[in-house]
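just leaving the lab so this will be short. what follows is a protein written twice so to speak, once as letters and once as structure tokens for the fold. can you read through it and tell me how you think this chain folds. thanks a lot i owe you, the record is right below.

___
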Amino acid sequence: MRTRIPARLAFILAALILCLASEPAHAYIGPGAGFAIVSSLGVILWTMFLAFLTLLIWPIRWVIRSIRGRRAFARAKVRRLVILGLDGMEPSLVDRFMAAGKMPNLKRLKEKGCYRLLGTTTPPLSPVAWSSFLTGVNPGKHNIYDFLNSDRRTYLPNLSSVSIHAPTKSFRLGKYTIPLNKPEIRLLRKGKPFWNTLGEHGIFTSVIRVPITFPPEKCRGVVLSAMCVPDLRGTQGLFAFYSTRTDAGHERTGGEQIRVRREGDTIRAELIGPDNSMKEGAGNARVPFVVRIAKDNRSATLEIAGEKHALRPSAYTDWITIRFKMGPGATVTGICRFMLVRLEPEFELYATPINLDPEKPALPISFPAAYSPYLAKRFGPYATLGLAEDTWALNEQLIDDDAFLEQCNSIDAEREKQFFDALDNTPQGLVVCVFDGTDRIQHMYWRYLEDKHPAHPRNLLGAAYKTSPHEKTIEEHYARMDALVGETMRRVEKDKNTMLMVISDHGFSPFRRGLDLNAWLLENGYMKLKAPAERGDAPNKFLAQVDWANTKAYALGLAGMFINQKGRESQGIVEKGDETARLKREIIGKLTRLVDPKSQEIAIVRVQDKDVAYQGPFTETAPDLVIGYNRGYRVSWETAIGTITDAVFHDNTKAWSGDHCIDPDLIPGVLFCTHKVTSESPRLMDLGPTALSLFGVDVPKNMDGKPLEVTV
């Protein structure tokens, strides 16, 4: 008879094993934060003591928790709730593929239980939507309105969900600066996840890669963080591309293009790692590598960190562990994959962003800390970067559609193992897992769904375009997700006390045309630029060319527009109160139902005042106006980073050809459930309160969501 080790005990055992196998020191790094080196001997001995103590008292804790667990489920309507998130799954495609027989499992789930449209958030961006899902509140209470916020002092963009600051204490030891404390990693999302409330009532939870859970919060269960986990260099994903091309070396959005030289059959280069703030003037830590090209010029060998890895064109290596030496006894590890793009006529090699090593992460990415290493020990290395699929490398045309698709599929395969492991080890309680592939693949392959899309290869290549297998990529991915749903149903159907929900945070839409909101503000007299002589060599991004003394409004990020308000913005000129209110009404009136002169279509269907859209204590962070675009439209690439162009409308010809930054009423998500949901107009923010209700836990009064009526 096979005996299952409880998940919590397995994690503790994994922690003990890792303590015994620790390297001399661990390093902690964040964006611009540098390192904090922890004394290895004290940490290892103390951790070993705690691990042994935990094992010794485990039987007592198990008895107490068993008694508490029985009490916890006294009012519960279910013993286990499984929520499978398929980010961005679009209802119209679900309907089409179910009707065509491509999604039999979701069709069966619909017939067995229910299938409903699921209201999303304002705006329908993933960090905003998933934050409302996990807290049950509107953005005014959880403080997430976009991927980026505007820093009102500098007008520069900041990451909206997390801030990381350098260690505050250190001492000098010769040429080295030794930090004495860790960087401060602060979650900017407010509100309590509903699974923490469940934990307070004795309900165990497994939370796998739900966005906006970094840094991980303590809970009664396990958490593996997702969106906004940085790479080892502290960015949201910085790839490297090595090439002998003469144009190599210029800036690439989302990565670095590095020129290399071929000497016979050898290429020598360096993998650039994190900034080494321990040693003054050291710059980025680097690990050299060599590529040796085979005599037939069809393959190569990568030599890095004392190991050799075969390279073949268009094929990824496995995850490779890279150790960056920061100082005496101080090493930080990351993992990355390489892909040989081609050997001729030019050499081209792609390296993924360097992910935090899940076995020895330089930043906390799971709770408990042993959970991430546990998964790595059990299943091998896996992607930890918040946005792990490298959309920018494809957007910049440095990798092709096949290479990007392989990334998505391999990351989904990693996630599937983690999800089913959590399912197996959580026989009662809550299991939540989000798969990102649906979102990423629709972003990058939507162009193949529409013959008239400006980014469709036929419209870019003309007669040179041949039919591509990627015309079926989205359909095939939906079929794979349907198979995932089918396997999940198979695993839970035997348990009559388990409820399964399959959800998406929003739907999807084509992104054919972008609007440069700052160009519109210029045309309508709400923004002024510095005189040409004053601009000098200032870059045309991050609003660097704006004359703030004569500017009333500006746009930054994906969500909306800001008033240049006196006393709030550092160079604000619009008075707070009546003047701001009048200006907002005036802009709303002009922007609402704005027509695209090229297509004669309405580009903006609604503009919302933040005072109407949001309620709560954190509305000061929000954009003053939230733009609701029509299907087919979105804020332009230039507006998102504060670059100002000479036209309001632009064709979108990038691979990133689908999006969901539109009016929320046009882009609901999906809700499938094994049980009937009879409530009218269910919303994403209702699911947390619903979970609490199903487990017999009172819904906190501050939650905006309401428990759905579910037939159990």
